[in-house]
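User: Predict the structure for this protein chain, please.
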Amino acid sequence: MKVTFLGTGTSLGVPIVGCNCPVCQSADTHDKRLRSSALVETEGRSIVIDTGPDFRQQCLAYNVRHIDALLITHPHRDHLAGLDDIRPFCFIQQQDIPVYASDYTCNAIRHDFAYCFADPKYPGVPDIVLNELEYYKPFEVLGVEITPFPVMHAQMVVTAYRIGNFTYITDASSVPEETLEVIKDTEILVVNALRKERIHPAHFILPQALDIIAKIQPREAYITHISHDIPHASTQQELPKNVHLAYDGLTLEF
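Assistant: Here is the predicted structure, written as structure tokens:
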């Protein structure tokens, strides 16, 4: 399995427009964060998790050439706004692209991208097929088994995903006990952390993310959905040896 972090930033990205803080002005490329998204390549399949507003730029930057399926975590714009940018893949592949999401997120897609489902369909729109998930029930994408499970983003339910021994959680502020049971033996864990201090109502901060990592005990853990409150270099030095700040373009192979 190969995982590429297409983006590791929060809804505003880093640098934030108009911000003069040290991280936003940093020359370290690890501090440049597009909106969160990931590409998972396994068993000859290419699966994208979330299509935010930077998705076209990410595909060009990291040479994404094929997409077999999309997994959407929730309908906030920083995770969904780039859905229209799958059009070139539809043209090149000459086929519909399946999109997997919760019923709530599927309804949002039907509303926000209504032109994709109009009858008659305008030529050139993305050819997508929506698939509504059932939490904790595995499904297959061309032979690749994926298990969706819920985490809480304040009062919103967000879908997280386990693919083999890889688990991806974003935009979580709490994890149900039933979910912990599903992922407790995962080897590679990705989890969000917005900042180091000041509790946020809808996102883990770094100490909370470290607590979740300690409960799950993966072999390696990676932090994503990071704001400008976390400088990469100095923060990485503070973390346990098996915990890493993800960064745009980071590739894992395992």
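Residues 206-216 form the longest helix (11 residues).
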